């Protein structure tokens, strides 16, 4: 009986990979939110004097999208830090946040593709791969 591993120790070892990946995702989302916030401030400082109406409309759309992405990345960062603290305590978290993050990141990558910024696709796809790996790891836990 003494050689049997403790159930809590097994659970903690199973949660190690999702815990560190969740922390990495939280930091990445925080950086995304910070850089997007800086972009929002820059977009609002641009002057529209002497600019055609089509360009002003495109600027307004860019401002709105940047503000929305900033808010969503900040929310995901906070929720991921919360999940990290739960995983650190050995509490199994639901996979729904990671599914929602995956959908949001797919939409973010699609936005980058449609706006012609193919360089903005790679980091969201890495976030997507991390999310899928966490979902699979959490699915293995009983």
Automatic annotation (TrEMBL):
<protein>
    <submittedName>
        <fullName>Uncharacterized protein</fullName>
    </submittedName>
</protein>
<keyword id="KW-0472">Membrane</keyword>
<feature type="transmembrane region" description="Helical">
    <location>
        <begin position="120"/>
        <end position="139"/>
    </location>
</feature>
<feature type="transmembrane region" description="Helical">
    <location>
        <begin position="20"/>
        <end position="44"/>
    </location>
</feature>
<feature type="transmembrane region" description="Helical">
    <location>
        <begin position="64"/>
        <end position="84"/>
    </location>
</feature>
<feature type="transmembrane region" description="Helical">
    <location>
        <begin position="96"/>
        <end position="114"/>
    </location>
</feature>
<keyword id="KW-0812">Transmembrane</keyword>
<keyword id="KW-1133">Transmembrane helix</keyword>
């Amino acid at each position: 009986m003494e050689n049997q591993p403790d159930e809590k120790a097994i659970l903690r070892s199973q949660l190690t990979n999702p815990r560190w990946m969740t922390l990495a995702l939280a930091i990445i989302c925080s950086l995304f939110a910070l850089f997007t916030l800086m972009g929002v401030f820059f977009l609002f400082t641009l002057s529209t004097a002497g600019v055609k109406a089509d360009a002003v409309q495109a600027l307004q759309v860019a401002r709105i999208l940047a503000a929305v992405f900033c808010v969503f990345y900040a929310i995901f960062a906070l929720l991921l830090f919360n999940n990290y603290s739960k995983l650190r305590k050995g509490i199994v978290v639901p996979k729904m946040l990671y599914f929602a993050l995956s959908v949001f990141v797919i939409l973010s990558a699609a936005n980058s593709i449609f706006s012609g910024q193919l360089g903005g696709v790679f980091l969201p796809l890495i976030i997507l791969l991390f999310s899928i790996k966490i979902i699979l790891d959490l699915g293995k836990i009983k």
